[in-house]
Design goal:
The protein is α+β, with helices and mostly antiparallel strands and 188 residues long. Helices cover 44% and strands 18% of the residues. The chain has two domains: 3-60, no CATH class; 70-181, Cytidine Deaminase, domain 2 (3-Layer(aba) Sandwich).
Length: 188
């Protein structure tokens, strides 16, 4: 018997695939019970298991060693902010070789907005002597299409970065289900 089967049997949990587990993200035990038909006891065990798994995963999150493409960044950032129930704005700062020097949460907003000023995004870039930066934020609604405010902020960040000699490489919008890259769509 494999280790994960032993754990599943010990905790009396149903066998689930990664997609099923992903659907539970952000739900409480009562919501899991109602939506998926599990007993409240099993739903509580599932919630506890998900919390423990997230804690274990978060403890292993390291800086992305280098940026090769927008998909790498989107997958990496989605693991950090993609499941939040409010908008979170995040930035990665890179050296001239694309190696990540620093990363940081810039702003934590509401269900549909996160207030961001170019100053808050670029000060860490100057402090860490970054050659470039990538910003990302999540859309809790699941719709990755950028808003008019997202587009305006992207233009402002690009202009401000250019003034400071820190190139903006991309602005990525993530959700549980996908991502939108300003660079890949020719909007940067």
């Amino acid at each position: 018997m494999k280790v994960d089967e032993e754990i599943t049997d010990t905790l009396c949990l149903p066998e689930l695939n990664a997609r099923q587990l992903y659907l539970f993200t952000g739900l409480n035990a009562h919501e899991i019970s109602v939506r998926f038909g599990y007993s409240l006891e099993v739903s509580r065990r599932l919630c506890a298991s998900l919390v423990l798994g997230k804690l274990a995963a978060d403890s292993r999150v390291e800086l992305l060693p280098s940026v090769k493409n927008g998909d790498d960044v989107a997958d990496y950032v989605r693991a950090i902010i993609g499941t939040h129930n409010t908008e979170v704005f995040y930035a990665l700062y890179l050296n001239a070789n694309g190696r990540v020097l620093h990363q940081q949460e810039i702003s934590h907003g509401s269900l549909s907005a996160s207030l961001v000023h170019p100053r808050e995004v670029l000060v860490p870039g100057v402090t860490h002597r970054a050659a470039a930066f990538i910003v990302a934020h999540n859309h809790p609604s699941g719709d990755v299409e950028p808003s008019a405010n997202d587009k305006a902020l992207t233009r402002r960040l690009k202009r401000a970065g250019k003034l400071l000699g820190i190139e903006m490489l991309d602005h990525i919008v993530v959700s549980k289900h996908g991502h939108f890259s300003f660079c890949a769509q020719g909007l940067l």
